[in-house]
Amino acid sequence: MKRSTISILASLMLVAVISTTATTRNDEVWFKGSTVDAIEKSLAMALRTPSPGMQASASQVVRDLRVLLPDQGFSLLIIPLMVIVKNEDAEMPIRMVAALALHDLRSGKGDFAIQQMAQFAKSERLKHLCSWLTYERHQQNTTVFKNTSNKD
What we know:
Layout: H1 2-21, E1 24-25, E2 28-29, H2 34-48, H3 52-68, H4 78-86, H5 92-105, H6 108-120, H7 124-149
Antiparallel strand pairs: 1-2
Helix pairs in contact: 1-2, 1-3, 2-3, 3-5, 4-5, 4-6, 5-7, 6-7
């Protein structure tokens, strides 16, 4: 158990270093392919750990990586983030960072989970955040729809 925690922590630290030191050359990020897949798997493991600190850190790294790699889907991270957001026993700041990360991934499943939490969460803070995230997504989708329908 201790060995796996150390390896997960080391992987998470590597991801944090990579995400903060990534530079672009000719509008391309210097890590792609198998490196991104390895990072995604490490983040999924970190999100599934019982350590609240590791979950929060991994959620924030997801947000940072999404900015660096906007075309990457990160589909392995959607379910673990949803589990954190829906866990009523988890600490509120961790649930909120996970909700923000889930929102940043722009997935239908994640958006639906956020929408459900806006209605059914026990915490008023989380309800409020998820309501705003749902509203923002609705505004983004409406703007995209208006822009594509006005091209006639």
